[in-house]
């Protein structure tokens, strides 16, 4: 016997524009989403992760196929939000490590040096790099923002990384 998903009616009503149904859906699922974001996210970031979960879910309500329960789908969205958050923080950490000289006696590049390095990139590469590596957009989101294919964003970011690494190596040699 198939169990009826009590949240499905709320989701369907929310898709039709019923704000009350949407509010009730959030109310009934928020505790689980909050717990998952607390467990998978970074300390102090839970509220932002929960908000991002619901924003992503709202954007894709119409695409819910019903392959799983609404709660499972929403927790999957939440897990992806948290995973993206962790990847973004890891990229930021690696970027900082790359632009910081490893030599103990080297002068640590301050914000001005880093800004100058990034400003030295071509506009296309700088835009792709800043959107994905500093702001944390996914490559897909950056592609949409820039109006270019995702592969173009990937290649621009890769080339920007190569240029920035060369600048760091050159500054370490001096």
TrEMBL record:
Keyword field contains DNA-binding: yes
One GO molecular-function entry: DNA binding
Annotated RNA polymerase sigma-70 region domain residues: 25-91
Keywords in alphabetical order: DNA-binding, Sigma factor, Transcription, Transcription regulation
GO biological process, one term: DNA-templated transcription initiation
Bilayer-spanning residue ranges: none
Record InterPro entries: RNA_pol_sigma-70-like (IPR039425), RNA_pol_sigma-70_dom (IPR014284), RNA_pol_sigma70_ECF_CS (IPR000838), RNA_pol_sigma70_r2 (IPR007627), RNA_pol_sigma70_r4_t2 (IPR013249), RNA_pol_sigma_r2 (IPR013325), RNA_pol_sigma_r3/r4-like (IPR013324), WH-like_DNA-bd_sf (IPR036388)
Keyword Nucleotide-binding on entry: no
Database matches in Pfam families: Sigma70_r2 (PF04542), Sigma70_r4_2 (PF08281)
Domain named RNA polymerase sigma factor 70 region 4 type: residues: 114-163
NCBIfam families given in the database record: sigma70-ECF
UniProt family annotation: Belongs to the sigma-70 factor family. ECF subfamily.
PANTHER family linked to this entry: ECF RNA POLYMERASE SIGMA FACTOR SIGC, RNA POLYMERASE ECF-TYPE SIGMA FACTO
Protein name: Unannotated protein
């Amino acid at each position: 016997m198939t169990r009826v998903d009590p949240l499905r009616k709320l989701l369907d009503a929310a898709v039709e524009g019923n704000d009350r149904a949407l509010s009730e859906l959030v109310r009934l699922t928020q505790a689980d989403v909050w717990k998952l974001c607390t467990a998978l996210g970074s300390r102090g970031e839970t509220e932002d992760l929960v908000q991002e979960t619901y924003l992503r879910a709202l954007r894709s309500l119409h695409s819910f196929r019903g392959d799983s329960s609404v709660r499972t789908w929403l927790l999957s969205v939440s897990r992806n939000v948290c995973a993206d958050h962790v990847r973004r923080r890891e990229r930021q950490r690696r970027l900082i490590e790359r632009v910081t000289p490893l030599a103990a006696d080297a002068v640590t590049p301050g914000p001005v040096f880093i800004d100058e390095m990034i400003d030295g990139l071509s506009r296309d590469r700088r835009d792709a790099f800043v959107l994905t590596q500093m702001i944390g957009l996914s490559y897909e989101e950056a592609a949409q923002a820039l109006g270019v294919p995702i592969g173009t964003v990937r290649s621009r970011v890769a080339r920007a990384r190569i240029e920035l690494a060369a600048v760091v190596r050159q500054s370490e040699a001096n």
